[in-house]
Design brief:
- The chain has a single domain, classed as Growth Hormone, Chain: A.
- It contains 8 helices and no strands.
- The longest helix has about 40 residues.
- The chain is mostly helical and about 190 residues long.
- The radius of gyration is 17 Å and the shape is globular.
Length: about 190
C-alpha cells in the first residue's frame, strides 16, 4: 500500500470519527448565545486544543501501550469494540436532542466532542497500521477540514438543518461501525495468526 492510499484511509477514518458535519447542531446549540466572531474564536481554541491532544497521543500512545504490556492487536480489538459501541449509539439514538445553554469552550468541544475516546483509539491504531507520518498528516488534514466546516458553520447549518445533520451523523455512524469491525477483525487475525 503506497503513502497516498494509506493517507486516504487514515484521513477518512479520522474524519468519520470526528464527524465535523454531524457536530454542527451540537456546536450551534452550545454557542447559541455567541456572536459569529465569538463562535469562530470558540471553535478555533477548541480545534487547537483537540489537534494538540491528538498529536500528543500520536507520540505517546504507543509508549503508554508498551508501559502496560498491551500489544497493538489487543488495542485494535478493545478499540474496535469501543468504536462499535459509539457507532451503535450514534445510529440507534436521537443524536442531538439536548440543547445545552451557555457558551462552550475547550470542554466539551475539544474534549470529548472533537477528540474523544474514538479519535484517540483510532489515532493509536492508525499509527500501528500506517505509521506515524501518515497518521500525523491525516490529523492535519482532518482538523483543516473541520476548521473549514466550522468556519462556515452558519451557511452549512442553514443548508443541512437539524434533520440533514442527523442523517449525516447516522451515515457516519454506520461507516464508523464498519471501521470498528475492521479493527476487531484485524486484531483477532493478528492474535490468532489467522
Amino acid at each position: 500500500m503506497d503513502f497516498l492510499e494509506k493517507l486516504l484511509r487514515a484521513s477518512i477514518a479520522l474524519i468519520i470519527i470526528i464527524d465535523p458535519l454531524g457536530l454542527i447542531p451540537i456546536f450551534m446549540a452550545l454557542t447559541r448565545d455567541a456572536t459569529l466572531e465569538e463562535r469562530r474564536a470558540i471553535f478555533s481554541r477548541a480545534a487547537l486544543v483537540g489537534f494538540l491532544l491528538l498529536i500528543l497521543f500520536s507520540f505517546t500512545g504507543t509508549g503508554i501501550l508498551n508501559l502496560f504490556g498491551i500489544t497493538l492487536s489487543d488495542f485494535k480489538i478493545a478499540g474496535g469494540i469501543l468504536l462499535l459501541v459509539l457507532a451503535l449509539r450514534i445510529v440507534g439514538e436521537a443524536h442531538y436532542d439536548q440543547e445545552p445553554g451557555g457558551r462552550a469552550g475547550i470542554v466539551p468541544l475539544a474534549v470529548p466532542l472533537l477528540v474523544g475516546p474514538g479519535a484517540i483509539t483510532t489515532t493509536i491504531v492508525l499509527i500501528g497500521s500506517y505509521g506515524l507520518w501518515v497518521t500525523l498528516t491525516a490529523i492535519v488534514i482532518t482538523f483543516f477540514l473541520s476548521f473549514l466546516v466550522f468556519r462556515n458553520v452558519h451557511a452549512l447549518y442553514r443548508l443541512l438543518g437539524k434533520t440533514g445533520s442527523d442523517v449525516i451523523a447516522k451515515i457516519m455512524g454506520m461507516l464508523l461501525a464498519a471501521i470498528a469491525v475492521q479493527f476487531i477483525r484485524e486484531g483477532i487475525q493478528e492474535v490468532f495468526k489467522l
